[in-house]
Design a protein that fits this description.
heterodimer; A: alpha/beta; Rossmann fold; 2 domains; 5-stranded mixed sheet; 12 helices; 20% strand; globular; B: 7-stranded mixed sheet; 5 helices
C-alpha cells in the first residue's frame, strides 16, 4: 500500500517488517522519530521485540552486540555525535562478525552546533568494517533495511544505512509498503550457526596473537569483496519480488554523456534535475550515484566513467587537509586505469546548506 | 509543479495542517513532497512548512524559495517575517484574519485572500479564544481558494491525520472551503 511517510517512519516500519527481535537506542535529533515510533509499536504489541532503554549510544551498540551474539536480529539508530560515541563498538561489531543493522541519519558534527545534513559523521567511521549505504529517498530507506538484514546475515558484517537529515528524515513522500507476507518470504527469520548459548558455552573475543590476527583481518577484507556479489544477487531477488531496482551504484542519462556529476543521497536526485536542465542547453551531462560506500564499487564506477571527458564529484563532507571524501575514493579507484575522465571535486552542502 | 510555503507559530498546527493538505493531494493521486522547516521548533516561535505537488515523481530536494502560493496562520508574523518573499507572479497569499484582503499590502505582484479561521474554528468547538485550533479551517479555505482539491479529499485527509475530534475538524474545513469558494468572505486581488 502506498502511503505518505517520512524517511524516519519508513525506517521504523522496515524494522517492524523485518521482524527485528531486539532494539536498543538512545535518542538524538534527527533520528529520534525512528525509535520513538518503534517504542510505540513495542508498547502496543504490534512489534514483538525487546526494546532496551540505554543511557548512551555506546551502550546501545553494546546491547546490540550482546543480543546479536545470541543470534537475535537487532537494530539501532543514531546520528552525528551519537555515532561518534559508538566508535569503539563499531569496530567490535564488525570484527566479531555480527550482522547488526543500524540507520544513521547523516547530521553535522559539532561545534558549531548543527542538526542538518552532513556526511562527516558516517564517513569518519569508514574503516570500522561496516558496510555503508547512502539512500536518496524514504522508499529506498525502507527497502535498504530489508535488504541489509539479508546481506549482513549472509556476509556476517554489519550494515549502516545512511540518509540525509531532514531532506529524507523529516520529509513526507509516497512510500510503497509491501504485504507483510511477501516480506517474510524475502526475509525469513534469522537462523545462524554458532551463537552464544548457555547450554553450549564457548569463548568469544579471546586473545588472537601475531600469528593469526592478520588472517582474521584478511577474512573480513575477503568478505567485504564477496559482499558485492551478495548485494547484487539480493538486489536482483528484491526486484523480482517487489519490482524496485537497486545496485551498488545508480546511473542517470549516462549512456551518451560526456560529462558526469557524481553525487550521493538526495543530492543525486537534485543532480538529475540539473542534468535535465543542462541537456536542454545542449550539454551532454549524466549523473552517477555512489550508493554503497563500503564495499566501494570501484569496478562499477570505472565502467561508468570509461570514455567520459569530465567528472565532478559533489561532496557533502570534507577530510580536512585533503578534500571531499567521495572524490578521494573515486580518484583512488580511477588511478592507473585507462580511458578515465578528468576528475575534480567540490565540497558543498555542509551542515544542510 | 505546485510549490507552497506555510507560515505560522509553533503550536498552531502548521505542520499538521500542511500534512493534511499533502495527504489530500496524495488522495487525488498526485506526487507529493512535504517537509517542515528544518529547524528546532518552539511553541510561539515562527515556523514554516513546505509542500510540493506534481503529476510526476518529485526529484528536487531543497527548500522552496519561490512558492506559487503562501498560507499565513498568524497575521502578527507580518511584523517580523518577510511573508511574501519569493512568491511567484499572481500567487495567492491566504491569511487567517478577520480583516478584508485589501487591508494587506505586499511588496510583490500577488493576490490576497482572507478567512476568519479563528472564528470558524471556535464556532466548531476547536480550541480556545486564546489558542484556536485552525489547521483544518485553513486547509479547507486553501482548497476552496485554488479549486483544485475536492473538499471530500480534505475531509478524508483530516480523518487520517488529526489526533482528536475529526468530525469537528471536518466541519470547520467544510465551512471554510465553502466560505472562500462562494465568496462569503471576499477575496480580492491587490498589488
Amino acid at each position: 500500500m502506498r502511503q505518505l511517510m517520512t524517511g524516519n517512519y519508513a525506517a521504523s516500519y522496515a524494522v517492524k517488517y523485518a521482524g527485528v527481535q531486539v532494539i536498543a537506542a538512545y535518542p538524538i535529533t534527527p533520528q529520534t522519530q525512528i525509535v520513538e515510533k518503534l517504542s510505540e509499536m513495542c508498547a502496543a504489541g504490534e512489534l514483538k521485540a525487546r526494546y532496551i532503554n540505554v543511557e548512551s549510544e555506546h551502550s546501545a551498540m553494546a546491547a546490540c552486540i550482546g543480543a546479536s551474539s545470541t543470534g537475535a536480529r537487532v537494530f539501532t539508530a543514531t546520528s552525528s555525535q551519537g555515532l561518534a560515541y559508538m566508535h569503539e563498538l563499531l569496530h567490535w561489531a564488525s570484527r566479531a562478525r555480527l550482522p547488526v543493522v543500524m540507520t544513521n541519519v547523516n547530521r553535522a558534527m559539532a561545534p558549531g552546533w548543527n542538526v542538518w545534513a552532513d556526511q562527516n559523521d558516517s564517513l569518519s567511521q569508514r574503516d570500522t568494517g561496516w558496510m555503508q549505504i547512502y539512500c536518496k529517498s524514504a522508499q529506498e530507506v525502507f527497502d535498504s533495511i530489508l535488504m541489509a538484514y539479508k546481506i549482513s546475515e549472509k556476509v556476517l558484517l554489519p550494515t549502516m544505512i545512511n540518509y540525509d537529515a531532514f531532506f529524507t528524515s523529516h520529509t513526507e513522500e509516497p512510500v510503497d509498503i509491501p504485504d507483510a507476507e511477501k516480506v517474510r518470504d524475502f526475509l525469513p527469520g534469522l537462523r545462524r550457526g554458532r551463537i552464544m548459548d548457555v547450554d553450549d558455552p564457548c569463548a568469544f573475543g579471546t586473545l588472537v596473537a601475531q600469528d593469526t590476527y592478520t588472517e582474521f583481518q584478511y577474512k573480513i577484507q575477503e568478505s567485504m569483496q564477496d559482499a558485492k556479489k551478495v548485494i547484487t544477487e539480493t538486489c536482483a531477488e528484491f526486484k523480482s519480488i517487489f519490482n524496485r531496482e537497486y545496485a551498488l551504484t545508480e546511473e542517470y542519462k549516462m549512456s551518451d554523456a560526456d560529462e558526469v556529476i557524481i553525487a550521493t543521497s538526495t543530492m543525486f536526485e537534485t543532480a538529475s534535475v540539473a542534468v535535465d536542465e543542462l541537456r536542454k542547453k545542449g550539454s551532454k551531462t549524466g549523473a552517477l550515484r555512489i550508493r554503497y560506500f563500503r564495499p566501494f564499487p570501484s569496478e562499477d564506477i570505472i565502467r561508468a566513467l570509461s570514455g567520459k571527458k569530465r567528472a565532478l564529484v559533489l561532496d557533502r563532507n570534507i577530510s580536512f587537509g585533503a578534500q571531499g571524501i567521495f572524490c578521494q575514493e573515486v580518484l583512488a579507484a580511477a588511478g592507473g586505469k585507462g580511458n578515465m575522465p578528468a576528475i575534480s571535486g567540490v565540497v558543498l552542502g555542509l551542515g544542510g546548506r | 509543479m505546485l510549490e507552497l510555503r506555510v507560515h505560522g507559530r509553533g503550536g498552531q498546527g502548521v505542520v499538521v495542517g500542511s500534512a493534511i493538505l499533502g495527504k489530500a493531494y496524495f488522495i487525488e493521486n498526485k506526487s507529493v513532497q512535504f517537509f517542515p522547516e528544518f529547524g528546532v521548533e518552539r511553541r510561539g516561535s515562527p515556523v514554516q512548512a513546505f509542500l510540493r505537488v506534481s503529476e510526476d515523481k518529485i526529484r528536487c530536494n531543497y527548500s522552496i524559495s519561490e512558492p506559487d502560493n503562501i498560507i499565513l496562520f498568524d497575521e502578527s508574523l507580518l511584523n517580523s517575517v518577510d511573508i511574501a518573499k519569493g512568491i511567484k507572479n499572481n500567487g495567492w497569499i491566504l491569511i487567517n484574519s478577520k480583516k478584508r484582503p485589501e487591508c494587506f499590502h505586499f511588496d510583490a505582484n500577488c493576490r490576497v485572500a482572507t478567512i476568519d479561521a479563528d472564528g470558524i474554528s471556535l464556532a466548531n468547538g476547536l480550541g480556545t479564544e486564546t489558542a484556536p485550533i485552525i489547521n483544518a479551517a485553513m486547509t479547507g479555505a486553501f482548497a476552496g481558494l485554488l479549486g483544485d482539491l475536492p473538499v471530500e479529499s480534505i475531509a478524508a485527509a483530516i480523518h487520517s491525520s488529526v489526533p482528536a475530534r475529526p468530525d469537528k475538524n471536518e466541519a470547520a474545513a467544510r465551512e471554510a472551503f465553502y466560505k472562500i469558494k462562494f465568496g462569503a468572505i471576499k477575496q480580492k486581488a491587490v498589488v
